[in-house]
Amino acid sequence: MTPLADILLAAINDRRAELITLLQGFVRTPTANPPGETRRGAAYLEAFLRRCGLAYRVIAPMPDMPNLLATFDTQRPGPHLVLNGHIDVFPPGRDERWRHGGPWSGTIENGRLYGRGTADMKCGTIASFVTYALLHEHRDQLAGRLTLTAVSDEETGGKWGTGYLFENHRDEVAGDCCLNGEPSSAHTVRYGEKTPHWLIFRVKTRGAHGAYVHMSASANKIATRLMAALEDLTDIRPEMPQAVARNLADPAVRKALDDGLGEGAAGLVQKVSLNIGMIDGGLKTNMIPSECKLEADIRLPVGVTKQRIRAEVTRILKDFPEVSVEEISHPHDEANWCDPEGHMLQLIQEAAHRVSGVRPVPVITLAATDARFWRQSGVPAYIYGCSPDLMGTYDEAVGVDEFLNVVRVHALAAAAFLAPEGKGI
Fold first, then answer.
1. Disulfide engineering: 374 pairs with which of 12, 184, 379, 412, CB 3.0-4.6 Å?
2. CB-CB contact of 33 with 152 (8 Å)
3. Domains and CATH numbers, the chain
4. Is the pLDDT of residue 390 over 90?
């Protein structure tokens, strides 16, 4: 009898052109968030499920941002695996800066497929859908349960997407493990991530005519001093769990982080980072600004809590009586991680090594994903996807062969996780 792994790999090879076309069509379907209108993207994925004869439900607390949920039970005792991807993508920016036919072109040139969201994360979402369909075809060789979730609100925090599913349908979507296809690179598996701590600082002064500088302090100048003072946050050192510290000290892990995310990433994973993403102050050149708003993106590593950051921000603001602060990120989110030697992680490593010859190392990464909802609920969640080097940029792209390898790894790892006890695939 042919092993299931060989059957799955043969099916992916046989359907190569079909799978590329499937991703291409998804990329050509605009799903930018904001504004968050993803109905066409959801409909595209629904059509795939219907063609495969797969039942699903639409859960749409916000009508313009539907979520899809599908599940099947093998009728044999076993674990519950959840596949998770998102439909929404970053806004495309200015069309004229895209050099390969526009942000929604899906153009393929020199083995790369171009368009907004190819890397983050239409590649990974399609991998989830193909994995779900393939394993459903061969469910007689599996045990346990497989669930597929595709959400429309990942890019703006997940309140109406995965967060909503956990709050209202937890028994259906939590499972025993989550496999996610966000970008990771062929060299890494993400088992944890920093958390964003987004703060808005508002500076208010009297304001005055620009020639009357003796009449009022400038809100913009105060904001400038505040930005410098906030750099103190980056000096905070984490108190990392031993397993995480040991993993991040591994030279192979540090090299993979720098190779996959750019030189310096390995050091940054363990540090608080600060980015002032938005500044808005002043009305006119010859007016002293009475208001200025700063939006700060502070990323916290494992071992630094939001409570600790809040205390330090409070200390800094004692020198800035004109400033108020408000958090706009999820106040209960924290940097999160699961077992860097977990069962699913090992299955991903084995599948990736078989497919590409590369055994990816476990890492904590810089950006936040919906995987946090599982980890913060005590459920392990692992991420394996394409390279992140062009995500969020103009000319975002994914290698066609890279995409197909992500599909292969997801299919093999998911099948191995659901293999009947004592049997391989």
1. 379
2. yes
3. 4-193+335-417 (3.40.630.10), 195-253+264-327 (3.30.70.360)
4. no
